């Protein structure tokens, strides 16, 4: 038995309106806190990746709802599957932007969408049908097994990076904060400035990743292939002079100045050995890594991994003219939304804005402390760590099963070497945990089983998996 709510509420009669509100609130144990007016920019939802209702689409998927006659309703619930945001994903207050809620009580499952079916017409990428399919499967108590986004049971991921430009010496302040927390970051270095700070670069390289931020601080977008190639060659030559030929081979990350790049940039980057680059929020509708499509026929082992920066950075705080308490509240919300959406967070700071007494130097340590508190939930790594994981994850081929989902069968493609792959299992009833996973061949490794919450369990392969087929039975 299940309820699927699609209720239009109109204010023709205030008493009937309030009765309908109370009915919905009691049924799902949530609060309706207002509506999204047409003049409000929050006409997008961002879904939670790997959630019991929203696992079928990537974390932080931004879906346009259109400007429709039926105003979407804002809700507040401890069990959400999506939130309303504006296009920029500005971190609004938590009790004002819930969009999809769910609840289970005495065997009855209920799901609530705060927006009407009129919004479906604006879904050009057809993401809402996938979301609805997963929701209906959950309402029907069907278990689902699916490949998680992140390794070792982590719910989201974080890259801590510095665009190392003017006042290069401030990089030492950022590195100290990372070192104190025993975390690894990436320093995307402007090579024309880095050449004047060789000692600092090599000191940073002892514990952190050094990557490229071009040779001068001008964007690449729209420049001819010849101009771009000349610039990139100069960038590489300057970096070699800084770190030496042997270390140069390890420098495989890039971040374009002013987040300005194009397909030509990506093609040339791959030719010089770059494996990942960090881009701006315009590049993706999701808050997840993706493989570059600039070159047709280049597979995931060779294509660039693109890491979108969908978090606010220090330049955003400056433009908004925020004081420290205001900025602190926003970065805290950003963290919370990153974690719940199962997304990749890229916290980007600039060396010129990281003086010891500057705002970012005050905001970052508390943020890092939150990461430490969630060390079992968030995969924190350098740009290369995240890129390498995304390639490894792509080697695991798994088709989500239907109905009872009593088995887990997947293949690992060549070259194998996959460590930490995780599968999530939705429960058929709340607290209906996965009790065990049984290998159907004696030569298969035994995974770890972990309960995530009332609605999901995790199957974690901490061992390194080689190429081949893996076949398991699930016990509930």
Task: Give short descriptive properties of this protein.
12 helices; 476 residues; alpha/beta; globular
Describe the structure.
The protein is built from twelve helices and 27 strands. The protein has helices spanning 14-28, 128-139, 171-180, 191-194, 198-204, 225-243, 245-248, 263-271, 314-320, 324-341, 359-373, 383-394; strands spanning 2-5, 31-35, 44-47, 62-64, 73-76, 80-85, 98-105, 108-113, 145-147, 156-164, 186-189, 209-212, 253-255, 276-279, 290-291, 305-308, 344-350, 378-380, 396-397, 407-412, 418-419, 422-426, 436-439, 448-453, 456-460, 464-465, 468-475. The longest helix has 19 residues, at 225-243. The protein is globular. The model is unreliable at 1-12 (pLDDT under 50).
Q: Roughly what percent helix?
A: 25-40%
- Summarize the biggest pleated sheet: 6 strands, mixed
CA-based shape? globular
What is the residue-mean pLDDT, rounded to a whole number? 93
Number of helices: 12
Strand arrangement within the widest β-sheet reads 1-8-7-6-3-4
Gyration radius, in Å: 24 Å
Distance between the termini: 20 Å
Q: How much strand content do the residues show?
A: 25-35%
Secondary structural class:
alpha/beta
β-strand number: 27
Low-pLDDT residue spans: 1-12
């Amino acid at each position: 038995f299940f309820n699927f709510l699609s209720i239009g509420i109109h204010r023709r009669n205030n008493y009937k309106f309030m009765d309908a509100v109370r009915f919905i609130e009691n049924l799902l144990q949530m609060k309706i806190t207002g509506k999204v007016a047409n003049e409000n920019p929050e006409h997008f939802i961002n879904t939670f990746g790997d959630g019991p209702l929203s696992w079928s689409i990537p974390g932080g998927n931004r879906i346009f709802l259109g400007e429709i006659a039926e105003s979407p309703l804002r809700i507040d619930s401890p069990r959400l599957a999506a939130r309303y945001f504006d296009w920029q994903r500005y971190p609004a207050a938590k009790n004002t932007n819930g969009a999809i809620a769910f609840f289970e009580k005495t065997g009855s499952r209920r799901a609530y969408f705060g927006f009407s079916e009129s919004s479906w017409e604006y879904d050009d990428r057809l993401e809402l049908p996938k979301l609805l399919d997963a929701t209906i499967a959950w309402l029907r108590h069907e278990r689902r097994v699916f490949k998680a986004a992140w390794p070792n049971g982590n719910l989201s991921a974080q890259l801590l990076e510095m665009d190392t430009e003017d006042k290069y010496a401030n990089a030492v302040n950022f590195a100290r904060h990372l070192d104190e927390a025993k975390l690894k970051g990436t320093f995307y270095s402007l090579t024309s400035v880095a050449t004047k700070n060789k000692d600092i670069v090599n000191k940073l390289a002892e514990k952190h990743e050094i990557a490229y931020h071009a040779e001068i601080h001008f964007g690449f977008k729209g420049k001819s292939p010849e101009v771009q190639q000349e610039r990139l060659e100069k960038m590489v030559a300057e970096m070699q002079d800084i770190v030496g030929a042997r270390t140069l081979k390890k420098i495989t990350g890039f971040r374009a100045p002013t987040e300005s790049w194009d397909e030509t940039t990506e093609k040339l980057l791959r030719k010089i050995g770059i494996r990942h680059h960090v881009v701006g929020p315009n590049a993706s509708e999701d808050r997840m890594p993706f493989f570059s499509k600039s070159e047709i026929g280049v597979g995931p082992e060779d294509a660039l991994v693109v890491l979108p920066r969908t978090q606010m950075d220090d330049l955003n705080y400056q433009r908004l003219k925020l004081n420290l308490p205001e900025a602190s509240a926003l970065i805290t919300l950003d963290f919370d939304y990153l974690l719940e959406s199962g997304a990749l967070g890229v916290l980007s700071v600039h060396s010129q804005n990281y003086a010891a007494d500057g705002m970012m130097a005050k905001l970052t340590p508390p943020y890092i402390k939150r990461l430490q508190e969630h060390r079992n939930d968030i995969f924190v790594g350098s740009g290369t760590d995240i890129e390498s994981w995304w390639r490894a994850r792509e080697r695991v081929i798994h088709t989500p099963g239907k109905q009872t989902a009593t088995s887990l069968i997947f293949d690992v493609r060549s070259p194998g070497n996959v460590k930490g792959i995780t599968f999530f299992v939705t429960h058929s009833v709340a607290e209906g945990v996965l009790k065990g996973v049984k290998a159907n061949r004696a030569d298969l490794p035994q995974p770890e089983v972990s309960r995530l919450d009332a609605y999901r369990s995790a199957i974690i392969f901490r061992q390194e998996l080689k190429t081949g087929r893996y076949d398991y039975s699930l016990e509930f």
